[in-house]
Amino acid sequence: MNDEKSKDIVEITFVPDDNEEENSIEKKENKQHKKKSTVKELRNKLLKQEEIIKKVIEERNEYRDKYLRGLAEIDNFRKRVKKEKEEYQKYVLSEFLLGLLQIFDNLERALKAKSDDNSEKSIISGVSMIYKQFIDFLRKYNVIEIEALNKPFDPNFHQALSKEEQEGIESPIVVEVYQKGFIYNDKLLRPALVKVAIPKEKVTNTIIEKD
């Protein structure tokens, strides 16, 4: 009997306290709450990272589109410039040739004139008119004749084909022009072919007296 009573007493002494049970439940709830908070924070961080990645991808696509459009525009510009250059090179002489054809027309008219009207004086007058027209035409395109006759010889603009000695001069001078030279836009187009007079060498006689 005594043993049974003691056994009952032991069992009663291990009955859980209400406060301890409540604390245990509270702890479990706190752990679950913290776990939920942590999961929520991780989810929020993940969403933010996804938004950042999405924004970066959108910006990358935008820059890529701009880059591709830029390449396309550059390629189109290059093709357009090439085409315009080809057109320019093809027709650059159009205006020049039109002006030249006017001179051609006048020259043809002079050749087709009736023989009874072509006195020597009228022929010279017609040729002079065509020559003046041609000179004016060259000046229009900045082709200027090089003045050479009676000018100091300049190897930058004159090419000497012959020379002769001449008294009374101190430096080479152009005395005859075989072919006129021209400058185009301040650059030598072709030199003038000329004859040059050079100073005559002075000959001194030396008398050697013998003893």
Describe the model.
The chain is α+β, with helices and mostly antiparallel strands. It has a domain of 63 residues: Nucleotide Exchange Factor Grpe, Chain A, domain 2. It contains four helices and six strands; from the N terminus they run ααααββββββ. β4 and β5 form a beta hairpin. α3 runs antiparallel to α4.
Mean pLDDT: 80
Could you spell the SSE succession in H and E letters? HHHHEEEEEE
Q: So, the CATH homologous superfamily of one domain?
A: Head domain of nucleotide exchange factor GrpE
| Strand proportion | 15-25%
- Major sheet size, sense and barrel closure: 3 strands, antiparallel
Quick one: how many beta strands? 6
- Helix fraction? 55-70%
3D shape:
elongated
Number of helices: 4
The largest sheet has its strands arranged as 1-4-5
CATH topology assignment of one domain: Nucleotide Exchange Factor Grpe, Chain A, domain 2
Q: Please give the radius of gyration in angstroms.
A: 54 Å
Q: Structural class from helices and strands?
A: alpha+beta
CATH architecture of one domain: Roll
Q: What is the class of one domain in the CATH system?
A: Mainly Beta
